[in-house]
Amino acid sequence: MNNSQTAFALAALLLAAVAPALRAQDFPKISQRQYVDGSAKLVVTGAFAINEDVAINKPASFSDGESTWLQFGASGSATPNVLITYGETKEIGIIVGKGKLTATGAITPGEKSDCSGKADVSPKLISGKYTCHGITSYDPRTGKMSTIDIEVTFTVKS
């Protein structure tokens, strides 16, 4: 192995060591259920700002035993909203919005992510906290791309 190959291998090893990646134990197993109550504290800073408690959208939130959709507020509405998804591929999605301002973060198994956090699941309650840093967002007011940071803390009852 020459010096450049050694340097590349060392850089890859260091990146893997410091890059937060979704581990199997971080992906919650959520049984089939409907949600009867809950809310999320949504804090967005950067290109746009949100600091509000948002109630769960009960009809739009459910778990089918393989995937879960937790919708707080109404997607696409002028008021703050956040969707947290848990997919069959074990990816966790965090989508925030307020009117035309939106941004999407994700935690993908085995990949470096700008988001981190976890959820705790019991038979009647799910609670969790996710943070995302440097998420790209398009601002239709300026016509430019920019970044935001997201913090969402939530509790839902089934």
Write the layout of secondary structure elements.
Blueprint: H1 3-18, E1 33-34, E2 37-46, E3 50-55, E4 62-63, E5 68-72, E6 81-86, E7 92-98, E8 101-107, E9 115-121, E10 125-139, E11 144-157
Antiparallel strand pairs: 1-4, 2-3, 2-11, 4-5, 5-6, 6-7, 7-8, 8-10, 9-10, 10-11
Description:
There is one protein chain. With 158 residues, the protein is mostly beta strands. It has one domain (21-157): Lipocalin. It has one helix and eleven strands, in the order αβββββββββββ. Strands 1, 2, 3, 4, 5, 6, 7, 8, 9, 10 and 11 form an eleven-stranded antiparallel beta sheet that branches. β5 and β6 (81-86) form a beta hairpin. Mean pLDDT is 85; it is low at 1-25.
- Class inferred from helices and paired strands: mainly beta
State the CATH topology.
Lipocalin
Task: Report the strand count.
Answer: 11
> Helix fraction?
10-25%
Mean pLDDT: 85
Element pattern in H and E: HEEEEEEEEEEE
Shape: globular
Count of individual domains: 1
Q: Which percent band covers the strand fraction?
A: over 45%
CATH uppermost class:
Mainly Beta
Tally the helices: 1
What are the low-pLDDT stretches, counting only 5+ consecutive residues below 50? Answer: 1-25
**Major sheet description:** 11 strands, antiparallel
Q: Radius of gyration over alpha carbons?
A: 17 Å
CATH architecture: Beta Barrel
Distance linking N and C termini: 56 Å
